Amino acid sequence: MANGKSRASWKYAFAYTGIVVGAGFATGQEVLQFFASYGLISFIGVILTGLAVMFIGRQAAKLGYSTHAESHVLPLNTLFGKKLGLVVDIILAFFLYGLAIVMIAGSGATFNEGFGVHPQVGAIILIILAFITLLMDFDKIVSIIGVITPVLVIAMFFIAGYNILNPVVPLSEVNQYNDVSRTPTGFWWFDAITYAGFTLATAFSFLSIMGSESARQSIVRRGAVYGGLLITLLMLLINFGVLSIIPNAYDVALPTMQMAVNVSPWLGTAYSVIIILLIYNSIVGFLFPFLARFTKPGTGKYKMLLAASLIIGYFGTYVGFVELVNIIYPLFGYVGMTIGVMLTIRWVFLKLKARKLAEKLSDNEDE
Question: What is the pTM of this model?
Answer without folding.
Answer: 0.82
